[in-house]
């Protein structure tokens, strides 16, 4: 039998603790995923700080579909297909900016920030042909929680708050790394790898790879930071399945809720100079609160299907093809007075140290994923194992399936959601 | 010549055959070859102690300190990076693409007896696993000329502006 031809229904290729390798390699499965997952569920499109003022916009994607996210004059957020209703040209090719609206470069049809068609040049040819009100940009439902903006192409999708469910608590906790200030986007790295998007989806909830793949990074940081990330044998470091494909991996459980501070933890010595600088403007308690959050929160919150709130940054994945994925690593920091600039500079340096196409961590991850994509072509029916720790998984007091941080509980959570969404019925 | 040439290049262009500009060009070519040979220890020795190596994302900024970059290395970070590239733990560096880079289109921006600022173009081909990637960039080198001859010339600042810095590029196991 030719293993590269398989009529098994995609949902049947996932068996709880193992998935067929063809989930990474089969172009037909990829096409179905775009329709059944990325064009159906809530997909992260922006952080509200990227659309801080009326008239600001960002161009991005929902699955493979280009979209524009805007804030209109009434402060409402919109997500619209980046496609003129006339002949299909893209309206906006800038990654972000400010605008009063969007004018198609081809025949100058113009649209408002809310997608309303405002003007058609030489309109006499359209008399008795079209009504402008029928030709607004195609809008996606847009909802946000905790500053995280999501859009969906499915008008009947459940409310975002319901989809996020128990993940909302962890979004709230994640945002506490502002140290009393809101979070803002400071910049982003982008890189692509020749591999399937689910390989990256798994990685953000993969504690097991960390000391192996990231040995080079661990060797390059101070002893306190390396010790903070030494969770392999820490029994308190655990991963929860939060439902709907979402999971949270707690690498540094004492930083799960940054408001909880018994004062016993010393601030890392590497931040002494920064502490001295901040102390000119902030109280000791404020400085301690800000510096305890320098590495972000102590967990990676993995939201199905395309965003993770990972320690001190957002990881956003965008499927391009069955074997190509674009990743963004979005740097964040507290949005406050200019006296916080030294702190945000240090956060940028920490982000650059690990993330991005020339970071000390990302290229090694990408090499690992590249190897998965290449290896998975061998016998695509053979299972990929996501069963680590399944025998020691227990239900937490909150009702969440829970196991050690190095276990594959989060991957099983994501694949269970994948299986639900990929069912034909 | 005794004074620094600080006027804009259009007013008084400096030839690439100017002896001081030529020393800077030689250094940039030696540097390119060291990087293609992955001789990172030798490469790092070309920088001054206060030297900066920057690969920015924002094509318009010179304020690298307050923006996110792909690389923003002072001497400490460069030494850590060289360690990462050579120690054998980093799987991206162990299995790195082979690179061949051509640096040309030199324009001396300013020339004095102690310092040359040199703009150039770099086209790099990276080959790995049956795939060739193109990395095109504008380079700016600020080179400190040694009083006792070219052997002591050093890089004070190198800025690599990729044409696609705001787009997604592959994750790299080599340096630009």
TrEMBL record, chain A:
Its cofactor is Fe cation. Keywords: 2Fe-2S, Dioxygenase, Iron, Iron-sulfur, Metal-binding, NAD, Oxidoreductase. PROSITE patterns: RIESKE (PS51296), RING_HYDROXYL_ALPHA (PS00570). Residues 44-151 form the Rieske domain. One of its GO terms (molecular function) is dioxygenase activity. Gene3D superfamilies: Naphthalene 1,2-dioxygenase Alpha Subunit, Chain A, domain 1, Rieske [2Fe-2S] iron-sulphur domain. It comes from the Bacteria. Pfam families: Rieske, Ring_hydroxyl_A. This is Aromatic ring-hydroxylating dioxygenase subunit alpha. It comes from Prauserella halophila.
From TrEMBL, chain B:
The keyword Nucleotide-binding does not apply. One of its GO terms (molecular function) is dioxygenase activity. InterPro entries: NTF2-like_dom_sf, Rng_hydr_dOase-bsu. The keyword Oxidoreductase applies. Keywords: Dioxygenase, Oxidoreductase. Belongs to the bacterial ring-hydroxylating dioxygenase beta subunit family. This is Aromatic-ring-hydroxylating dioxygenase subunit beta.
